[in-house]
Amino acid sequence: MGALAQERARSLCEVDGDVEQLLDPCKPRCMGGFVDLRSDTVTRPTPEMRRAMAEADVGDDVYGEDPTVNALQDAFAQRVGKAAALFVPSGTMGNQLALRLLTRPATSVIAGRRQHVVIYENGAAGRNAGIQFQTVDDDDGTISVDDVRWALDAARHHHPQPSLVCVENTHMPAGGVPWPPDALPAVAACGLPVHLDGARLFHAEVATGVDAAAYAAPATTVMCCLSKGLCAPVGSLLAGPADLMADARAERQRLGGGMRQAGVIAAAGLVALRTMVERLAEDHARAHRLAEAVADRWPDAGCDPVRVQTNIVIWRHSRPDAVLDHLRAEGVLGGTLAPGVMRLVTHHDVDDDGIERAAKALASAP
Ligand SMILES: Cc1ncc(COP(=O)(O)O)c(C=O)c1O
Fold first, then answer.
1. CA-115 nearest atom, ligand 1
2. Which residue among 51, 109, 152, 262 has its CA within the 20 to 30 Å range from the CA of 102?
3. Residue 91 CA, ligand 1 centroid: distance in Å
4. What are 205-222's pLDDT values in tens digits?
C-alpha cells in the first residue's frame, strides 16, 4: 500500500476502526476492529484466492473461451449433480434467470412468503419475468405439499396458473434452517418444475450431511452463491439441464451479464469450492455459541440454540436499535431482518475471540 493510501487508511481508522485491518486486507476483522456479524457477504477473499486470481488463465467468456470459468462451471455442475452450469455475477441474477426460463408471463411462482426471491430482489421477478408470486407459509423454512396443491387448485378460481415452485435452502429468514432431505422430493412430486435458491446450499450440506447433489436432485435448476460464507469476492452459479443452461447463457447476455475475462473472478470461486466448504462447520459452531448467548440473555425471544444448525441467529426484540447501538459501542455489528427481528451471521472473517466478544456484549445488552 502506497504512502498516500496508508495515510488515508489511518485517517479513516481514527473515525471508524482498525488501522491494521485496513493496511492488511487479509487480516480477520475481529482481531482489532469491529466484529462484523451483519452478514456473511462481508468476507474478503483469502490469500489463496488472491493468488489464484492474479495467476488465472483467462479468455473471452462471452465466446465461451475462458478456461477458468469453464472449469468452475464444470466443477459446480458436477458438485450439484446437474449436466451444466453458468457463472453469473450475483445470486439475484441466478434466481432471475431461472424465473425467466421456467415460467411464462401472467403465471404464478409458488414460494415461501419470506424468501429472498419474493421480498429482497427489488421487484425483479415482476419486471424480468412478468410473474406473480403465490406466497405460502414458510415459518419453519420449508413450504408444505398441501399449500402447493392448494395453489394448483386455486387456478380454477381466478388465481394465476402456477408455472414453478421456488424454494430456499438454507432458508435465511427462518434462521438458516436446512431442509429435511425428504421435503423437496415431496414438493416436486406435485408436478411443477422446481428452482432451488441454494445461496447457502453448502451450509445445508455441511450441517446435515446430505450432499448438495442429493438436495438439488428434485429441482430443475439450482443456484448457489460463492460470495456468502465461501469468501469469493463475486459470483454465483446456476445449474440445470444442458439445453436450459444454453438458454440461460442467452438470457444472461440480454440482462447485460455477459462477462469477458471473468476467469479472474472465477479463479477465486474454484478456490472457494475446493477449500471453503468443509470449514463452514466452524461458522455453524460459532453461530450455535452466539445462539446460546442470545438465549441466556433473552430466554423468551424465540432463539432456540438447538435449531441453529448453520450460520444465522435470529431473535425477537422490542427495541432492536437499542441493542444494535449497545453492540456497536462494544465493537460488534449486527442487523435487523424485519421490525423487531434481530440477526447475527457468522462467517470466515470472525474467529472465536470475536464470538466471545460478541457473546459478552450480548450478555450486557438492554
Ligand atoms: C437466500 C438468498 N438468495 C439469493 C441471494 C442473492 O444473492 P446476491 O446478493 O448475490 O444477489 C441472497 C443474498 O443474500 C440470499 O440470501
1. 1
2. 262
3. 5
4. 999 999 999 999 999 999
The protein residue with its alpha carbon nearest to ligand 1, atom 6, reads 91
For residue range 236-272, list pLDDT tens digits in order: 999 999 999 999 999 999 999 999 999 999 999 999 9
- Can you tell me the distance from the alpha carbon of 99 to that of 97, in angstroms, rounded to the nearest whole number? 5
Helices (H), the chain: 3-16, 19-23, 47-55, 67-79, 91-102, 116-119, 124-129, 145-154, 183-188, 201-208, 212-216, 242-254, 263-275, 280-297, 320-329, 352-363
Give residue 283 CA to ligand 1 midpoint distance, Å: 18
Cα-to-centroid distance, 92 and ligand 1 (Å): 6
Task: Report the relative pairing of strands 108-112 and 132-136 from DSSP bridges.
Answer: parallel
- Looking from the CA of residue 95, the nearest atom of ligand 1 is 4
Same fold, 3-44+278-363 and 48-275: no
For the stretch 125-129, contacts whose Cβ atoms lie closer than 8 Å and that sit 24 or more positions apart, written own/partner, are 125/96, 125/99, 128/96, 128/99, 128/100, 128/255, 129/96, 129/99, 129/100, 129/103, 129/105
Domain range 48-275, CATH architecture: 3-Layer(aba) Sandwich (3.40)
The structural domains of the chain, with segments of one domain joined by +, span 3-44+278-363, 48-275
Say how many Å lie between the CA of residue 227 and the centre of ligand 1.
Answer: 9
Cβ atoms within 10 A of the Cβ of 191, count? 10
Q: How far is the centre of ligand 1, averaged over its atoms, from the C-alpha of 98 (Å)? A: 14
pLDDT, one tens digit per residue, over 8-51 is: 434 333 333 444 444 444 444 444 589 999 999 999 999 999 99
Task: From the CA of 90, give the closest atom in ligand 1.
Answer: 10
Q: Which residues are near ligand 1 (CB < 6 Å)?
A: 90-92, 95, 116, 168, 172, 197, 199, 225, 236
Sheet holding 194-197, edge to edge: 84-88, 236-240, 221-225, 194-197, 162-168, 108-112, 132-136
CA 100 and chain centroid, separation: 20
For residue 157, the CA-to-ligand 1 centroid distance in Å is 33
